[in-house]
């Protein structure tokens, strides 16, 4: 009987692993980590076809029940036909507040990185129970800077220095995957190194809002406020998720005022500027923007190259040719996270299959990432841009003239057409006055060679790539 129960538990765990993988892809990493990852498998009753899923708090159980119950039920019914009902609740063995021991924790469910175990007054398991910690790999030394993010990095480094910062709060504004979360972690690591006994708290605004509501329901607001205001460095990520939560906004406002009055440091990050946060009280907007708003622009191609090069040392002695790095840097341009993810996927595939990393392998294995990033650039657009750049008439792209002042721009346009569009050599030839595919091949190879030998030509091509990809 025990063996049967163990086998059933193993089968449920295997099914949950498959279901979780699909949910992570559907919901995205943030929602998955917030609500699905904490789910624990309960028992399955074969007679009623009921499967129990447990979450750590009543609030999170209600949230998942309201928003994800149908999706979870469907996923389980697909995974195993005998599941007819999915029941979501709080684990019956969850200890009461009076039984909890928070020794060595900061009172919000986080163990302070610098604190030795010591008794603390408990505010209950519902006060900042998330286990979000600091990623040891996200430091200033691993952050690759360039013209698009140098202001934000310098400001973040200044915030982590021993001397009092010139500005507080620091507000990091960047689109998804451009490095704002990396800088938040880096600030915490650097400040902790300078102040070993400091107390640091890092959370997402969504987590702040959830735990605030839970503390309100549990009548623990006094403890909640006291603990929150006891930190020396407060870092809040994705502040846009606090939109519309009036009571949570008010508490965050009072917390900011209290910490600033004591000379403590605050850093916020969001995907938009403070003024673009619709549904946020004017007083809170004023506090968020009163220090320094540092904008992180999308990484340009030079920074994308540098980021890829910085990652290559992890994969030695596996060789990654320069044309592959150039291809990835040029093509995966939406955000840095996708760029690094594409490189990791390519390297992993090559290592697991024993293949060499080549441009063809990159094109074959990264089709989803590449198609999502590839801007729809047309040959007509390329010809128009090249003609404007070299100050020649558009008709010269299709003419038979052989003058060098016309031939070289035409060859550059052919090269860019091959690099930036999915068109074949014959298709490109037809757009250039019906030229043979061998002429296009010759032009592409010539420009590739000239870029290696002639810095002026390489500079021209880089300028044109920036114009066309912007």
UniProtKB/TrEMBL annotation:
One of its GO terms (biological process) is regulation of DNA replication. SMART domains: AAA, Bac_DnaA_C. SUPFAM superfamilies: P-loop containing nucleoside triphosphate hydrolases, TrpR-like. It is found in: Cytoplasm. ATP binds at residues 177, 179-181. Residues 378-447 form the Chromosomal replication initiator DnaA C-terminal domain. InterPro entries: AAA+_ATPase (IPR003593), Chromosome_initiator_DnaA (IPR001957), Chromosome_initiator_DnaA-like (IPR020591), Chromosome_initiator_DnaA_CS (IPR018312), DnaA_C (IPR013159), DnaA_dom (IPR013317), DnaA_N_dom (IPR024633), DnaA_N_sf (IPR038454). Residues 166-294 form the AAA+ ATPase domain. Residues 1-113 are annotated as: Domain I, interacts with DnaA modulators. Pfam families: Bac_DnaA (PF00308), Bac_DnaA_C (PF08299), DnaA_N (PF11638). GO terms for cellular component: cytoplasm; plasma membrane. Keywords: ATP-binding, Cytoplasm, DNA replication, DNA-binding, Lipid-binding, Nucleotide-binding. It comes from the Bacteria. One of its GO terms (molecular function) is lipid binding. NCBIfam families: DnaA (TIGR00362). PANTHER family: CHROMOSOMAL REPLICATION INITIATOR PROTEIN DNAA (PTHR30050:SF2). Domain I is involved in oligomerization and binding regulators, domain II is flexibile and of varying length in different bacteria, domain III forms the AAA+ region, while domain IV binds dsDNA. Plays an essential role in the initiation and regulation of chromosomal replication. ATP-DnaA binds to the origin of replication (oriC) to initiate formation of the DNA replication initiation complex once per cell cycle. Binds the DnaA box (a 9 base pair repeat at the origin) and separates the double-stranded (ds)DNA. Forms a right-handed helical filament on oriC DNA; dsDNA binds to the exterior of the filament while single-stranded (ss)DNA is stabiized in the filament's interior. Belongs to the DnaA family. Oligomerizes as a right-handed, spiral filament on DNA at oriC. This is Chromosomal replication initiator protein DnaA. The lineage of its organism: Bacteria, Pseudomonadati, Pseudomonadota, Alphaproteobacteria, Sphingomonadales.
């Amino acid at each position: 009987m025990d063996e049967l129960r163990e086998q059933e538990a193993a089968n449920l765990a295997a099914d949950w692993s498959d279901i979780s993988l699909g949910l992570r892809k559907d919901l995205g990493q943030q929602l998955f980590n917030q609500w699905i990852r904490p789910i624990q498998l309960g028992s399955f009753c074969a007679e009623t076809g009921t499967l129990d899923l447990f979450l750590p708090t009543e609030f999170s159980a209600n949230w998942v029940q309201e928003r994800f119950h149908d999706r979870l039920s469907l996923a389980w019914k697909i995974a195993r036909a005998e599941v007819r009902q999915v029941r979501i609740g709080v684990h019956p063995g969850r200890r009461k507040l009076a039984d909890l021991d928070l020794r060595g924790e900061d009172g919000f469910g986080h163990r302070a990185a610098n604190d030795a175990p010591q008794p603390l007054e408990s505010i209950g398991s519902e006060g900042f129970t998330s286990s979000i910690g600091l990623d040891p790999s996200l430091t200033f030394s691993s952050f690759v800077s360039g013209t698009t993010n140098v202001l934000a990095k310098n400001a973040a480094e200044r915030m982590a220095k021993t001397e009092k910062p010139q500005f507080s709060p620091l507000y990091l504004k960047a689109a998804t995957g451009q490095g704002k979360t990396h800088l938040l972690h880096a600030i915490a690591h650097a400040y902790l190194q300078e102040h070993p006994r400091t107390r640091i708290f890092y959370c997402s605004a969504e987590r702040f809002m959830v735990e605030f509501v839970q503390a309100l329901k549990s009548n623990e607001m006094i403890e909640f406020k006291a603990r929150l205001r006891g930190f020396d460095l407060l870092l809040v990520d994705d502040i846009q998720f606090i939109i519309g939560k009036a009571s949570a906004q008010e508490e965050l406002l009072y917390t900011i005022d209290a910490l600033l009055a004591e000379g403590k440091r605050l850093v916020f990050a969001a995907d938009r500027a403070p003024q673009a946060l619709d549904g946020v009280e004017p007083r809170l907007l004023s506090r968020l923007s009163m220090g320094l708003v540092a904008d992180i622009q999308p990484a340009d191609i030079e920074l994308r190259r540098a980021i890829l090069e910085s990652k290559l040392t992890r994969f030695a002695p596996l060789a990654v040719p320069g044309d592959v790095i150039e291809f990835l840097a040029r093509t995966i341009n939406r955000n840095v996270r996708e760029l690094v993810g594409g490189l990791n996927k390519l390297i992993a595939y090559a290592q697991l299959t024993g293949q060499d990393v080549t441009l063809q392998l990159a094109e074959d294995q990264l089709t989803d990432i590449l198609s999502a990033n590839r801007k729809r650039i047309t040959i007509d657009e390329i010809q128009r841009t090249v003609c404007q750049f070299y100050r020649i008439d558009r008709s010269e792209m299709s003419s038979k003239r052989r003058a060098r002042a016309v031939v070289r721009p035409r060859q550059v346009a052919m090269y860019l057409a091959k690099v930036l569009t999915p068109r074949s050599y014959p298709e490109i030839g037809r757009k250039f006055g019906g030229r043979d595919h061998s002429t296009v091949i010759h032009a592409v190879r010539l420009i590739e060679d000239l870029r290696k030998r002639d810095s002026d030509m390489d500079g021209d091509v880089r300028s044109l790539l920036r114009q066309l990809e912007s």
